[in-house]
Each structure stands twice: as structure tokens, then as C-alpha cells.
Amino acid sequence: MSRSCIVRQKRSVHHPTARHGVCRRELLAALIAGGLALVAGRFAANRKPKASVFLATGQSYDGRLTRTIDEALRELGWTPAQFRGKRVLVKPNLVEPSPEAPHITTHPALVAAAVEYFRAAGASVLIGEAPGHVRDTEMALEISGIGDVVRQERVPFADLNYAATVWLKNRTRASRLAGFYVPEEVAGADVVVSMPKLKTHHWVGMTASMKNFYGILPGIRYGWPKNVLHYAGIPQTVFDIASAVPAKLAIVDAIQCMEGDGPIMGTAKPLGAVLVGWELAAVDATAARLMGLRAERIPYLTIARRYGHPVDDRHISQRGARWQEIASRFELPDYPHLRHLRPEPPQDDSRKQRSFARSRCDGRQL
User: Mean pLDDT, to the nearest integer, of 194-206?
Assistant: First the structure.
């Protein structure tokens, strides 16, 4: 037997490893193995699988939007046949419609295109929404133009503000809420399609496919404008609610967007784009970059990134057009909590040289 593996009784009192019969060679091997596992874990985290996001540019509301959706989903590996027999709930954003400001809500032309696509694929389609700022959902339907889609396409509509609910456990617990009362129509859907309007937001910087799921929770449970969720933390509940919905797809209306004091008081911002993707965090991160924002600093995307969702650009596979081709700075309210969302301006060479000189001087003084 090797002398290094002999457990000596005298050392056992003072050496914990010796007391249990572990030799130095075994301890060294365990430490090396642990270090390798740690390195491998970090390496794997940096090599997380990419999520695909399709970006269509040059889009208009009088264009062939159904074809755009079909092309996007095919690029993402989905054919119409895969939706045959599925229950699809289409969820637009009707937060507070205004005839003077159609850029507040999802445009009916894009909603009609989604209904047409999924119906043609053989799916059972339902439009559902729980407007966050108005109790009269029928009024919201008429002002937004979605009521015309319901009638013309003869598609059923579910008023989620007053729907019967089931309890879904909060699996991620970024917020303190134990779970959510979710309408039966949402819980029973095979696919929930988040169809937001791309807008700035005075609390969290932007609102897109993840924030749009605030509108699946009933006002009779959470109030208007869902203040129960606000008090539990907007970024945290945005992430938790989106995580609670099992199968979700994003189709983002970025044709006519909103900048400034969104999500209600902002001004129209044309972009002519539609974004499509199955990984909502990746879709919203791409949308943030289109707006000239640092995606990883959007509060709810910061949480999503911490939970392993692809937010960094290197973890997102771009399909269709590249976001860099049409990125345009969106104006934000000048609030202190939003200023860090902008990319830091590059330093000029003289500033870099002065910074380097100061660091060398500091080094000599140490």
C-alpha cells in the first residue's frame, strides 16, 4: 500500500480528510475534477443553443401579411400542417384604444392575417384579450378595429377580463406571487400567439411580446390596470407570467410603432417591420436592438437572461433581414431609471489615451 494513502491515527484528530480515510492523492483528484466541472459549466453557459428570430422588413398594413407570417414560420422550421387540429389563441394588445392614436394597439390587418394563416392551416382559432386600462372590452374592440376582424373573419372572441380561470403555479418565482389565475381559454390553448404593438414604456423601457401577456390575466382578479402585478414588481411579473404560458409564439407589430412616453401617450414611429419567433425573450431582445436600446438592460430581459434565456445577440440566430439594417433610435422619456438603456457613447482616442495614462500613473503609486 502506498504510504501516501495510509491513514495515520495521530493526524486523524486534526485532519478532517484523514479521519474519513481520504488520501492526499484522492483529494487532489477531486479538486481537479471539481475545477474542470466548473470550467465546463461556464463554457457550456457561453455556448447556450441559439434561438431563431425572423425579421421581415418593408412591411405595410395593406401588404401581404399572411404570406409574411407563412414565410417567417417556414424559416423557423414550422409548416402549416403542424398547426392542423391545434387550438390557437391570438392575443393582440388593446390596452387603451384611441381613434386618434392607432399606434397604441395592434393593427387589425396583422391580426386578420394571423387568423387567416392559422385557419387555413386547419387550426381552431380564437382571439382573446383582457384590456388593461378599460373595463368595456366591447368598446375596445370597436375603437381598435379588431371588432371588424371578429365579424369579417367570423372568428370567436374571448373577453379575458371576465373569463373563468384556472390556477397556474408560478414556476420561476422571480416575483413573490405563488401563481396566477389564468383564463381557461389560455390554459386550454395549444399555442398562444402574442401579437403586441412595439412601443416604448415609461417604466421598463419597452413593451413587446412578453409584456403583452399582462393582457391574458383577468381584470376581475387583478384590477385595472393590473395593479396587483405592478405591486409585485413589473419586470418580475412580466417574466413569470410569460414563463407560465406553456406554448407561445410572438408575432410583433413593428410596422407603425410608438416612441416617447409609451405605452399610451407616445407618438407614432414608422419602422415597417414584423418580428416572429418562438423564444419570446430573444424576440424582445431583437426588438430592443431595433429601438436602439441595450437589450440586456431592459429589466425583464435582465431577469430572463439570468434564467438562461437567449438575450445576448450572439445567442440569437437572425432569419430574414438583419436588425442592424433598419435599427432606428426610439425616443424615451428623460427619466433617470431609463438613461442606462442607451448604448454608452464610444470614447474618442484622446479620452482613451488620457484614461490609459491615468491608469499607469495609478499603478506607479500603488
Answer: 98
